[in-house]
Design a protein that fits this description.
The complex is a heterotrimer of chains A (about 200), B (about 240) and C (about 220). Chain B is mostly helical and about 240 residues long. Chain B contains 6 helices and no strands. In chain B, helix 2 runs antiparallel to helix 3, helix 2 packs parallel to helix 6 and helix 3 runs antiparallel to helix 6. With about 220 residues, chain C is mainly alpha-helical. The chains are: A alpha/beta (about 200), B mainly alpha (about 240), C mainly alpha (about 220).
């Protein structure tokens, strides 16, 4: 399933942040999204995930294909690691959580309540959630926050395995994941230019 | 030429600025003439005495209280369908005017009710419905105030207005069912024979038109303010982004 | 959908889930009423149906601000919105879970509290029936209010202000059924109205709630 983004423009808080953005994400490929803070990476990922409408442009091949991982992991503190994963597996209509537990080395923790995990362990659980969705395109926002180097390597392996099965990944990150085969997209190049000051219309700008 | 042209904030501002003096003048004149005519140049009612003259405030205010909500409903629908910001801002601008009209109707009703029914307040269906309408206005205004992002606020309040309208009608029927009231029937109606004598109805019409125009003038004026406030907000956000 | 329902029910009964709080509140309010109006049993008999309905309504209101806000804070709502489940289903299931953990216990507890307020014998059936028909509407309307205020810090008070006027028709017809039942009058009309409101609200309001939620998630 190819993700096809053409001439996309997005806004945050009523202000256009990125415009003229186009890219293709083929199966088996990973795309690393870079750019300074505040450029609109999170907004771009939320738009592609379908959480907010774009200002202009098309996003094709995203619907029902995307697994989205945001800054927060959506974990329920009172549920155990396995219960959290099984919930998401059932929502996405898949069955097995064992491979996800193994990939992120969570087997030893699987009966512990998510609230009792450390920040890095929570993040690993949040990333393991991507595996149980069974969706081909992973869209991830800063997935490596609070992970140690071993866990980052674990994550890179999981992404590589996912690509190997014909999946694709779009990852916004600042660190080097060790995914040398990934393409890089610099969001800074698409910074939107604001309309002239005196031309004040529906957008109030 | 399309009417939607005026949904452009700039066009809206220039047009309303041109008609404002005229609107203020005519509405003020009609209200003054109508109220003076009503208060001083109509006879006392044979049953209600001079108390009846509060009708010249009470009825137009009550009318505008309902019509203001109706206008907000239409403006909200326009915003949801056509995404004209001016429409959403006009709905926002109308709400405080509507709430004041509701308050005037409630207070004058109480002042009228005291000598007539011997009580300031009764849980009569009409009075109760107005009280419920007042609560709807408060919720609507509070929601506008609570939300930071203006477009989100416009969307949410519009949907609240829609849902609220359905529930307001439902409440009206529920309240009618719950208590048959003291309140007299409608003072004016189009289909029935008039139940207010002509001596009263003529100044009443003048007052109603005056209140209506005054409402329009207030909404235009306040919408203009909202547009400018919105522009300032957008410019400040832009400045922060460029810095 | 069942997974979501089971998760919400499980969360409600685990530590910190707040299950039973509404019930305890219902009990407290009912016990406070005789303290405020006096122990005269005739008076209590007369006001019992209304007091029990109001108590149930307030107990429902109490737990609404957790209904969606918790899922909003930990990011689950974002993830649910990108899941295969439509948001309409999500809000409906949430309302159902709220009803099972809050509304249903209130319905079951109401007869006991009716005894405390000297409710006449013929009124119990109608009280329970009216609450059984009315509390689902309270949960669904409350979910709409919760969806409106989900993004707000300290949205609890605003939530009450928004939801209360929407509760008016349900309260009027529900309390009317209970009152008429207790006084041995015909209950058919308000009962049908109450059932109609519940049915219409359950069928239609989730669409508004989902639309509101989508806007808040942008």
């Amino acid at each position: 399933m190819t993700l096809n983004v053409t001439d996309l423009a997005i806004a945050r808080g009523g202000l256009p942040v990125l415009e003229g953005l186009s890219f293709r994400l083929e199966p088996g490929r990973a795309l690393i999204l870079r750019g300074p803070n505040g450029i609109g990476k999170t907004t771009l990922l939320r738009t592609i995930a379908g959480l907010q409408p774009p200002l202009a442009g098309q996003i094709e091949g995203a619907e029902d294909q995307i697994a989205y991982a945001a800054h927060s992991d959506g974990l329920k503190q009172a549920l155990s690691v396995t219960e959290n994963l099984i919930f998401w597996a059932r929502v996405f209509g898949t069955s097995s959580v064992e491979p996800a537990l193994t990939a992120f080395d969570l087997n030893a923790l699987k009966d512990r309540a998510a609230g009792a995990l450390s920040a890095g362990q929570k993040r690993r659980l949040g990333l393991a959630r991507m595996l149980v969705t069974g969706r081909p395109i992973w869209v991830m926002d800063e997935p490596t926050v609070s992970l140690d180097t071993r866990a980052v390597a674990m994550f890179a392996d999981a992404v590589r395995a996912h690509l190997g099965q014909g999946g694709a990944a779009l990852i916004a990150t600042h660190i080097d994941l060790g995914l040398s085969e990934a393409d890089v997209l610099d969001a800074g190049a698409y910074k939107a230019t604001l309309p002239a000051l005196d031309d004040f219309d529906e957008g109030f700008l | 030429m399309s009417i939607w042209e005026y949904a452009n904030p700039k066009k809206f501002l220039t047009t309303t600025e041109r008609v404002m003096p005229f609107l203020w003048g005519v509405s003020g004149l009609l209200m003054v003439v109508g109220l003076i005519w009503g208060f001083f140049f109509t006879p006392d009612d044979y049953r209600q005495g001079s108390t009846v003259k509060i009708i010249f405030l009470h009825v137009p205010a009550a009318l505008m209280a309902i019509n203001a909500w109706f206008m907000m409903l239409v403006a909200s629908l326009i915003w949801l369908v056509r995404r004209h910001h001016v429409s959403a801002l006009a709905a926002r601008a109308a709400a405080p005017v509507g709430v004041v009209m509701t308050l005037i109707a409630l207070v004058t009703g109480a002042i009228w009710g005291q000598p007539m029914w011997g009580t300031w307040w009764a849980w009569d269906p009409r009075l109760t419905s107005f009280l419920v309408l007042f609560l709807f206005y408060l919720g609507y205004i509070a929601l506008w105030e609570a939300i930071e992002d203006p477009d989100t606020a416009a969307d949410l309040t519009s949907i609240l207005c829609l849902v609220g309208s359905v529930f307001a009608v439902l409440s009206r029927y529920a309240v009618n069912f719950w208590n048959q009231g003291l309140h007299q029937g409608a003072s004016l109606s189009l289909d029935k024979e008039e139940n207010v004598a002509d001596v009263f109805s003529n100044p009443l019409y003048v007052c109603m038109v005056g209140f209506g125009l005054f409402f329009i003038a207030m909404v235009f004026y306040r919408t203009g303010t909202e547009i400018r406030a919105r522009r300032i907000k957008a410019l400040m956000a832009r400045e922060r982004m460029e810095a | 959908m069942i997974a979501l329902l089971m998760r919400d029910l499980r969360l409600a009964v685990r530590a910190g889930g707040g299950f039973g709080l509404g019930l305890a509140f219902f009990l407290i309010v009912t016990v406070m009423v005789p303290f405020s109006v006096g122990p005269n049993s005739e008076l209590l008999t007369r006001i019992a149906p209304g007091v029990l309905w109001l108590g149930a309504l307030l107990s429902c209101l109490l737990s609404l601000d957790r209904l969606l806000a918790l899922d909003w804070e930990d990011g689950s709502l974002d993830l649910l919105a990108t899941a295969p489940l439509p948001l309409e289903a999500v809000v409906s299931v949430k309302a159902l879970a709220h009803w099972i953990t809050t509304g249903l216990p209130l319905v079951l507890a109401a007869p006991v509290l009716g005894v405390l307020l000297n409710l006449p014998g013929q009124g119990f059936l109608w009280l329970v029936l009216s609450l059984f028909l009315g509390t689902p509407a309270l949960s669904v309307i409350g979910t709409f209010g919760a969806a409106l205020t989900v993004g707000l810090k300290r949205g609890g008070l605003l939530l009450s202000l928004l939801v209360m006027p929407l509760y008016v028709p349900t309260l009027i017809f529900g309390a009317e059924v209970a009152r008429r039942g207790a006084e041995g009058m015909a209950v058919q009309t308000p009962l049908l109205m109450l059932a109609g409101i519940s049915a219409a609200v359950i069928a239609l309001l989730p669409f508004a709630s989902a639309a509101v939620l989508r806007i808040n998630l942008r």
